[in-house]
Amino acid sequence: MLNPSLHATLNQSSPLHLCSLPWRPAPPAEVKPISLFSPAAPSSFCRRKVARRRTGSGGIKCGAAEADEAVVSVTKKRTPTKVKAVATVKLAVGGIFSHVGITRGLDDIADVLGRSLYLELLSTELDAGKLSELAETGLEKKATGNYAHRARLGGDKEEGKYESEIEIEYDFGEIGAVLVTNEHHKEIYLKDIVIHTIDRSDNHEAKALTVHCHSWVHSKFDNKEKRIFFATKSYLPSETPSGLRRYREKELALLRGDGTGERKTFERIYDYDVYNDLGDPDADADKARPILGGSKELPYPRRCRTGRDRTKKVRIGTDPLSEKRGGSFYIPRDEAFSEVKNQQFSTKTLRSVLHALVPSINSALVDKRLGFPYFTAIDSLFNEGISLPSESVGSFFRSFIPRLIKVISEVDDVLLRFEIPEMMDSMTLNLTLKFNLISFQFCVDDASYLPSETPSGLRRYREKELALLRGDGTGERKTFERIYDYDVYNDLGDPDADADKARPILGGSKELPYPRRCRTGRDRTKKVRIGTDPLSEKRGGSFYIPRDEAFSEVKNQQFSTKTLRSVLHALVPSINSALVDKRLGFPYFTAIDSLFNEGISLPSESVGSFFRSFIPRLIKVISEVDDVLLRFEIPEMMDRDKFSWFRDEEFSRQTLAGVNPLCIQLIREFPIVSKLDPDIYGPAESGITKEHIEREIKGIMTVEEALKEKKLFILDYHDVFLPFVHKVRQLENTTLYASRTVFFLTPDDTLRPIFIELTRPKSPSTPQWRRVFSHCWDATGTWLWRLARAHVGAHDSGFHQLVSHWLRTHSAAEPYIIAANRQLSALHPIYRLLHPHFRFTMEINALAREYLISAGGIIEVSFSPERYSMELSSAAYDQLWRFDMEALPADLVRRGMAVEDPSAEHGLRLTIKDYPYAADGLLVWSAIKQWVTDYVSHYYSGGAAAVSDDNELQAWWSEIRNVGHGDKKDEPWWPELDTPESLIGVLTTIIWTVSGHHAAVNFGQYHYAGYFPNRPTVTRINLPVEEGEPVERLNRFLTKPESVLLESFPSQIQATVVMSVLDILSCHSPDEEYLGGEPEPAWAADPTLRAAFVRFSGRMKEIEGIIDGRNADMNLKNRCGAGIVPYELFKPFSDAGVTGKGVPNSISI
């Protein structure tokens, strides 16, 4: 929370007024001192500056002046005076100007000569006309400026200073802006400009104001236009000081550009284009992609225009206006990542994952279709990793991706590797943890006789043989004997060797009953310990067994007593030396699994060649290993409960508290009916019938009663997926269904999945196929349910990434950012409200177009729709996206997850009270809305007229609707921006989208999807029971269902690539700016806004505590319980890294 005592002394926002000199001695009696901010005496100055941690882009629109000294007096003295302007430049890595060559030398000379940076001050006023003989009535006052020379660098090696002395006229007025000309040959990053008075005639301290820049300033050799940085105070267009109006309009015109030419990296032009750069037909005909946006068939939001050349080749289904993908993806210069972000998690890091790590995975995993042969192979990604060829990965990875990359060296040890037991191989997933009883049946070919039926010639021999086998119960047994006799378990201890090894006798007593063992007749122990029996046997020598019970010679050769002894006498000590901590248990089930798949590394000197000869099943030798190891952090969900992903209750819980809790909706009508054309896709009515539901809920209520009591919910991926099913099925190594999953709400507010319906639409040659699956109690039905649930998981993963995440946050927000920079001046209060919420988004979106959603990108190769992924995203935009429904309350009401209730908190009553996404999200939404309400009320006190008459605001909103989201410009649901209330609604929705909404769908990705069986991104094969599937697949399913499930999951390459990317995307940067964290300079300089922000910041901290309390409430079963990951995605603040919490201001990763 902001410190009220610190900020209470800040004076009101107003640029330093230089028509008079507050540092002069007291004026003559006839001239009274005037305070612009308060009636305080001239000696009342604020000396504390607003703390500001910001290294990101902000452009000139962060330009602000901060009045550190507040009091200004008026005098009749009319002589010019001087002020000192100090510009702070952020140093690039490698020095102030790290470029080399001729231009470096020229820039150094310019610095020495003091002609590298030119600063000019602009007045807010026009000339008064009649007050001065030199005045030109009605014209802008002439800018006054001077060159700044580079000062000596102080202790801060990250910043450089440029100082300038500027002479100003006595009637100059308030400083409204600073013009900057960069005469270097390279751009510079300008942090701020501090302007203060120079007065050596008395003892008054210099008074200063700060103009915040946080922007890249282009070289005049690239662009002759000067950069302008406005002062702190915000103005509605109608209130703009006359001296700044022309500059305000000109700056907006420059930012809009003229819509022609290819954009240069140093430019700051914001313009629109369709998504015509996802394909690459010039490189590969198979990479041609249709244009998204600009058509009724494929509507889509607009992106930032780059103006690159058109592709040479035009493929079927593409547009002749497709752009080439060569070169860099332009984004306006101030939208780029900060240096801190570049160093910690920058384009460099993401590109390294996509450019170097992904090819390395491809080279390590040669077969692109290779799946995981068993679940322990999946576990090994977290415990042992993937060995990557060291020559393919340099030291860069070790520095920039420490979470993923580990280095193994000097490995030439012996590996103990256990064969997978047949029971585990075939029944790994019998996670009910019950034992299956197996009966053995022995068949004998020889004739058998009851005693009474024994032939007379054999009776005596029969009886004698039995007597010999019984023995007389005396003496120690010899190895050649075949005597079967009984004894108690009196040979488990060894008190003669160690008192601590004394053990009681099992059997022969009421206290310790036990079955008997075979008698050996060995000598008794010499020492009798407390709790042992004097009849305990010694353990020396061999353990007798009747001779015919010993292993056969064949068995001795393969697995003999000799081998077993070697394991016990030599191998176990080797294991003990390898595993130093004898008390260390298995921290997770995967550690046990790794015994079978990866083994334990044993010191080679402790195990001789004997092992390699006699235990080939156990001992493998590793040599010549000096590779880089890709090792994944264990996701929190898996770390808390390895088997949670396998349970129906967790599957249901994640629809309310997982990474995609935005799609569950109430069923309000029954039967469930598709809106698609039945003539094209088949019958519209769902196969889930009333009888199905009433049977599954055991007659507790009728379907009509369940609808009335709001007990039925659905995850509906039917209509959006069905049109793509046949197209996707023509691709290799993937498949697709349309799906519906129905849930029943239990009395404790948890959901239970009761039905999954998978549908294949009809085609010219085949009828529609669909099947309804339910949780069964028979093995076949249970495994089919698990397969069906895996397909739903892939549907949910695809929809989450393409719609809930990319479309509804990243893509939808880009037009807001472009329009704001084109239509809202840096002086506009709404721009200053929104600007921190747009930080870094455009660069992240450009990276996505370059690597993630492009043809052949990560999305296409890793998700079920593959090359049709973005077309599916377009279909969702067409069918589902509405700006008015992007507000959290409206979205909840639309999905039936809440109803409006003025008496309830936030004005909504949740349908499912324990709905963590909604419950916590509404806390954040309400806090944002209150902050926005306070802010808008401060500037639009004039009511509806003030909003309607704001030409910049209206142009911004019109451009969002008609250009940025032009494919939906004629929709009737667009809000009219005509009152303060409608403006508050629009702004709250935008801020929520880029902060709360994005945090909810992004920062939990690795926790929930890092273990991909929980959220597979693709299912690669059809269900074995689908009509027309080969009999061999069904037989394989019946023989080993686990193998079919694993075959359905992503391949090793698909899984590891997605896991690598999710790890990066879920990570917070060290310089992250969080919701309610720090105020913008313009807010901190205004007492009313400062107080409002203090309340907002305080509320965000309260929300942290509320969420912690909810996560500890055992009555809230969807967020608290055994092995459950607490729902923390709306906790506002976070440390750097993958934390599963933190709500940044913007779409930032």
Describe the structure.
33% of the residues lie in helices and 12% in strands. The chain has 1149 residues and is of the alpha+beta class. The protein has a domain at 4-256: Lipoxygenase-1. It has a nine-stranded antiparallel β-sheet with strand order 1-8-7-2-5-4-3-6-9, with helices on one face. Strand 4 and strand 5 form a beta hairpin. Helix 20 crosses helix 24 (869-880). The N terminus is likely disordered. Pfam families: Lipoxygenase, PLAT. Pathway: Lipid metabolism; oxylipin biosynthesis. Plant lipoxygenase may be involved in a number of diverse aspects of plant physiology including growth and development, pest resistance, and senescence or responses to wounding. Its main location: plastid. Residues 234-423, 448-1149 form the Lipoxygenase domain.
CATH class category label of the domain at 4-256: Mainly Beta
Name the CATH superfamily assignment of the domain at 4-256: PLAT/LH2 domain
Strand order of the largest sheet: 1-8-7-2-5-4-3-6-9
Computed structural class:
alpha+beta
Strand content: 5-15%
CATH topology of the domain at 4-256: Lipoxygenase-1
In DSSP terms, counting alpha (H) and pi (I) runs of 4 or more, how many helices? 35
* Count of individual beta strands: 28
Q: Tell me the span between the first and last alpha carbons.
A: 24 Å
Cα Rg: 38 Å
Described by the principal axes of the CA atoms, the overall outline is: elongated
Instruction: Give the mean pLDDT.
Output: 77
The largest sheet is: 9 strands, antiparallel
Named CATH architecture of the domain at 4-256: Sandwich
Portion in helices: 25-40%
* Uncertain runs: 1-76, 93-102, 131-135, 343-348, 392-401, 407-447, 551-580, 582-586, 606-628
Family: Belongs to the lipoxygenase family.
Function: Plant lipoxygenase may be involved in a number of diverse aspects of plant physiology including growth and development, pest resistance, and senescence or responses to wounding.
Protein name: Lipoxygenase
Main location: plastid
